[in-house]
Please model this.
Amino acid sequence: MGKLLIVGTVAFDAIETPFGKTDKILGGAATFIGLAASYYQQQSAIVSVVGDDFPESYLELLKKKRIDISGLEKVPGGKTFFWSGRYHNDLNRRDTLSTELNVLADFQPRVPEAFQYSDVVMLGNLHPDIQMSVIEQMPKRPKLSILDTMNYWMDHSWDSLMKVIAKIDVITINDEEARQLSGEYSLVKAAEKISKMGPAYVVIKKGENGALLFHEDRIFFAPALPLENIFDPTGAGDTFAGGFAGYITQSENISFENMKNAVIHGSNLASFCVEKFGTERLQNLQPAEINGRLKQFRELTQFDIELE
Model:
């Protein structure tokens, strides 16, 4: 059984969409990634930090999902990272109302000894220096290292971001971020330019328009599943990354052909994430639901065509 190391935020979110609003609920990139990956057979651990205001029930949820939390530091007297945002009517745009770093401001990640030789490392969206610190704590290069980042780090920590991108195998970013990172409007040209920075594989997430996988001169496209109900897109990209990383770790196959499957598995889990607020939908998914929706993806994407 492979090992998956997950690094990212464990946080509180407060979300407002056209369909309702929440008080503080469980959120954070590492949380979404970990919950998504828990639906695959691997050993996983989260490296993150919370305050002592973080409920024990949330920690129990992670442990119930077989996620090792020995690398999840709890700071006495500290407050957990908090983010709140309001989505516009189309759910594609949002306004950040509040960001409180709290204990995340002084976070120094510590990789648990049992996971220092992990097969796959998933570096969730965090300051590039923190991501690099985790890479430097690994005595041996993982079979696959995956990085997620965002435009904020491109604006404020470019040099650090370039150093960590040079060290990883797969980068997952959205289309807007890919264009900013590369300076290219065409996503094909953007992926080509980004791959020259270090990663052999570039995954560009396009939200409700699916995801693209690039490797050398090969391209794979996975559509997003058309859904009747979309309540909250928060964490969908992290859920995609968790499904992608979880499937790769379970299958122990890092070929381009298998990464196609991983993209579909990531898209599949992300389709559940958006159906309720926060992590609610991811907490109690049943295997029959996951497999049933995978069949929908297959029916959506497979066809016969006659060529002369």
Summary: The longest strand covers residues 43-51. The chain is about 35% helix and 25% strand.
